[in-house]
Amino acid sequence: MSYFLRKIGFYAIALWAALTLNFAIPRMLPGNPVDILLAKLQQRGGAVSPETRKAYALLLGGDDSRPLWTQYWDYLGNMFRGDLGVSVSYYPAPVSEVISQSIPWTVVLVGLSTIIAAVLGVALGAFVGWKPGTWLDSLIPATTLLAAVPYFWLALLLTYLLARVLGWFPMQGGYDVVLTPGWNWEFIASAIQYGFLPALTIVLASIGGWLLGMRNMMVSTLSEDYILTAEAKGLTPRKILRSYASRNAVLPSVAGFALSLGFVVTGSVITEQVFSYPGIGNRLLGAVQNNDYALMQGVFLFITLAVLGANLVVDLLYGVIDPRTRARN
Amino acid sequence: MSLQLRRRSAAALLAGAAALGMLATGCSSGGSGGSGDPSTLIAYTGQAGDYQINFNPFSPTRIGALGTIYESLFFYNKAEVTEPVPLLGTEQAWNEDGTELSVTLREGVEWSDGEAFTADDVAFTFGMIKANPAINNGGFDGEVVAVDDTHVTFTFAAPAFVKGPDFMSTPIVPEHLWKDVNPAEDVNEEPVGTGAYLLDDFKPQAFTYKANPDYWGGEPAVKQIRFLALSGNQAGADAIAAGTIDWQTGPIPDVQNTNENFPNYNAYTQWQNQMVLSTCSSAEQGCEGPQTDPAVRRALYYAMDRTQLNSLAFMDTASEMSPTFALTPSQDEYVGASVTEPKVPMEPNLTEAASILEGAGWAKGDDGIYAKDGERLSLTVEVVTGWTDYITAVDTIASQAKEAGIEVKAAQSSWNEWTEKKGSGTFQLAIDSLWQGPAPDPYYVYNYFFTTGVPVGETAGNNYSRYANPVVDDAIAQLALLSPDDPARQAQFDAIHTEIVRDMPFIPILTGGTTSVWNTAKFTGWPSDDDLYAFPAVWSAWDAAEIFKHLEPAS
């Protein structure tokens, strides 16, 4: 039991440290939101006079003269109450509303693609590792090549081929904007059609890592004594592959999978840029460009929670998944 | 303006995206103009990322409604020096000393919920703005009285001729719906206006307007307008290539040949943002560096080869500029005969640059760079990372300036950091562009950028060059007291021109082009050289609203 308490204590401290950094880092950014907002207005052809500047500084409360310490305490308090503040770049919308509008898109698209890539990669890796030295090994350089190509370049190439030349998929967006988002088949079908290409690029770009990791673990597992024992007992190769080799080889991939789920939120920035996909990555980029502290903090908080949460779950579940850890405890 | 929107777009993707854009351009053929329904116009304003609903016309984060839903009293066409176009107002007249403005309102106008529009709505709107400093972005400080249903009178304590255009282009809102809301924080999800369009539906990826059948000017021919959210201007260019949008403002690859590459589209460029090397100019205000010497600024002005700059950095979309900062050619009438060089020289003049520098006591060192009192003539230009045309421009200027014995270095930083440096005065030169005021009158540029600035260390507003010249201040103050038609204004403009052409706190480069790409196969009536009824930029809300009303489906 003390094992779990220790773990949870450790994560509480990690959370506090992350929250504090989260508070400090945006405030070290140069510039202030009012200047950025005015610069944006001016670029859109607005006449920015001295009076405009005064009005928007008043509106957005440009100068927060409270001491940093007080701001910090208020910030921590608000975080625990779940109050993320008001976004400056989408004023007066609250941060939680901005985030909740975007996060489902990211979670579904990047989450699903991550799961697909991991499952496919691990399955293929187990198979390739099972028969090292055959032609199947050529899958490794092929997929790692895809992983090594800069992601945005791969995405642009696929967009060009599949969307522009062949016209199979739409190039941009999350759904046909004529439809109304909701739980109806027409909309979901459109969302799937629009999401397929971004998902495909994510899967292609990340499958190599899973495949390589699993294959190498398979090769080393196959030389273990218990595999030899299993063979000596006369078990079928299929049984050995599934219950003996794969089950042991997959453990590091499970840990890696939980971690990569934690990074779903961050991993989406480039995908969403290339495909104009609605999601949290676009919002984060916009928040940074606009010095929108509250929105940045909100998005970072989600990322922190996702990563810490995924780690905690892995830590706690590892004992359950891996009998050897259990035995040692 | 547009340039900067474009520049910012997905900087990280630029290299790859540009190449892909070329491929896309190369292979397009006379395919589909197929953005759906023939009377639906699909526009992309450069919005990066999803929309958050906000149709409050006074909010800086609004996504629409200006011009299309909420109308102002008059429309000012900044593309040409013309009379304001009557919208909700039909006539305006100042009294002699500029303290009282009488406006006659249009009769028979209704809000889209059926209530009648009256003078009380106008008086209410301005009263509300005055009572809420956070939305008073035109600095309204007068009184508005509804004389009868169709006449209002604005009174001011001091002459307010030059503020008129700001107030006349203020969106008017209905009193019966706005009297109970907080105008600074309401997002106005169901806008009710007098304009030619009504809000049809809103989604984070797009919102749609539909034609107002009861519009006072007659139902517009374009029945629906849809605004898309894409990730940036590169995505916009891709959408043009795919034929999924009808209008975007921002360049596409090979823009000169738009019509050959995409037969349904045409590109049209107008020039408004005057590109400059801003300098931290005033040593008295605390600026440091060689650029505080006007001779250095003038020498740099003559060292530039603007023809080369235009082709290398701006795809030949920029146009000439006047060192007086009156837009050329549309505001040429403001430039008096006293200005000996009304346009910037397009070719470098190294002899002139050398004689200016030597006249100010600079001497050429062994390394070919001028120096004075042991200080080398070396300048750093701040430029924003990812604004590729400005980065190319600075690199080009650097090699041109070297010929003239001036060392120019580029320093790239993020937009936020760049803005911060300009605001606090910790820069030598920064490449940037100056924007225009609410009406086609160079007064606004002078007022925004050339009135005495704050010292280094304090946050500057518009005049971040910190230029301080009492003669200019005085002339600007005089202009504010004169009616826009008063011939006495010219003497004040002449005084300003003499000073700023000599001092050059902002070193003129060229006037940057704003390029719109629009679907001419689907709609007719776009602005042209013959009929430039609005500034052609989809992100410029008032202008875009005028354009929407002028368009007609081609089929």
Automatic annotation (TrEMBL), chain A:
Residues 103-318 form the ABC transmembrane type-1 domain. The keyword Disulfide bond does not apply. It holds the Pfam family BPD_transp_1. It is found in: Cell membrane; Membrane. This is Peptide ABC transporter permease. One of its GO terms (cellular component) is plasma membrane. PANTHER family: OLIGOPEPTIDE TRANSPORT SYSTEM PERMEASE PROTEIN. Keywords: Membrane, Transmembrane, Transmembrane helix, Transport. Belongs to the binding-protein-dependent transport system permease family. It comes from Glycomyces algeriensis.
Automatic annotation (TrEMBL), chain B:
Residues 83-452 form the Solute-binding protein family domain. Pfam families: SBP_bac_5. The keyword Transport does not apply. Keywords: Signal. GO terms for biological process: peptide transport. The keyword Signal applies. It comes from the Bacteria. One of its GO terms (cellular component) is periplasmic space. This is Peptide ABC transporter substrate-binding protein. It comes from Glycomyces algeriensis.
